[in-house]
């Protein structure tokens, strides 16, 4: 039986005899070949579907490790700032480990599914008028004076847990891809993947991919080389103007001979609709930044024909139903008459 990341990758993680082996069976997510997009783009494209983690995002990988270590070190409570997914994962793993979770979120800028999760898992939810960067600053200060463990990705155990996704990609492909495309918000995940690829390379002899990270244009601090005071994007998950792992992300980019570029909200929405409608994978808007970037880089030549590319789909589309409904103009036909339905289908099918 698969029992989660701490057991699966025990030898590669900072686990001691005293680490509680908590688990929601996180990790072990599918690497889905994207046949139609591959054909259209002329590459071998896969989606690492992190939306199938227990709370619907990659955050579970880092959170299981960070919460286990916090408990090992005697914490009774954890705290985080979040654009939504971190708070959902923190709330779930705190419950699992029997500690309390305090989560700080930007008022009105969090997708409904994520808020619902924090509520139902039983977190203490604090909403602030500022953005994620301000929330992170606040919790970093508070964690210095109060008896709470900070579980944002500035906590190194988070990146340790998250690096396991790179291990899985190498195991699933039997090799590292040529390119790993990934959304960049606070820049923890791109840093964690790169660490994971390097460790697997050292231990298992796999190659190293080029790391291609993508920020949303309205929140592209690393691309522009300056803090964005008022970040804005439809992809609220990555609405971050001062990434905490900025330097690590640049190192991942440079060491791997990769790129960090930006994608517009329009490119994000286009990729978001496309991967659902063409290949049947529903991701959240922030996650679609990776695919938007792949499309952009195939056009610009930064990704070459025939290359093997893994796009990380960091979160599940169900997290943000409002964007899905507003991003499409699909008509819902209202009918209560069976004959009307029959004719509707008959006409539709005859056109196929
Ligand atoms: N994709 C999703 C769905 C996310 O929720 C996040 C970050 C990212 C990508 C970016 O990852 O920050 O490691 O570069 N979400 C954080 C949160 C900030 O609070 O849930 P990153």
TrEMBL record:
EC numbers on record: 4.2.3.1
Under the heading InterPro entries, the entry gives:
Rhodanese-like_dom, Ser/Thr_Dehydratase, Ser/Thr_deHydtase_PyrdxlP-BS, Thr_synthase-like, Thr_Synthase_bac/arc, TrpB-like_PALP, TrpB-like_PALP_sf
| Ligand binding (pyridoxal 5'-phosphate) | 85, 185-189, 314
Which major enzyme category is it?
Answer: lyase
Q: Which GO terms describe its biological process?
A: isoleucine biosynthetic process; L-serine catabolic process; L-threonine catabolic process; threonine biosynthetic process
Q: Does the keyword Lyase apply?
A: yes
Q: Which GO terms describe its molecular function?
A: L-serine ammonia-lyase activity; pyridoxal phosphate binding; threonine deaminase activity; threonine synthase activity
Q: Which Gene3D superfamilies match?
A: 3.40.50.1100
Instruction: Tell me its cofactors.
Output: pyridoxal 5'-phosphate
The UniProt keyword set, sorted, is: Amino-acid biosynthesis, Lyase, Pyridoxal phosphate, Threonine biosynthesis
Q: Where is the Rhodanese domain?
A: 78-121
N6-(pyridoxal phosphate)lysine is carried by which residues? 59
- Tell me yes or no: is DNA damage among this UniProt entry's keywords: no
Q: Which reaction does it catalyse?
A: O-phospho-L-homoserine + H2O = L-threonine + phosphate
What pathway, per the record?
Amino-acid biosynthesis; L-threonine biosynthesis; L-threonine from L-aspartate: step 5/5
What is the stated purpose of this protein? Catalyzes the gamma-elimination of phosphate from L-phosphohomoserine and the beta-addition of water to produce L-threonine.
Homology family:
Belongs to the threonine synthase family.
Descriptive protein name? Threonine synthase
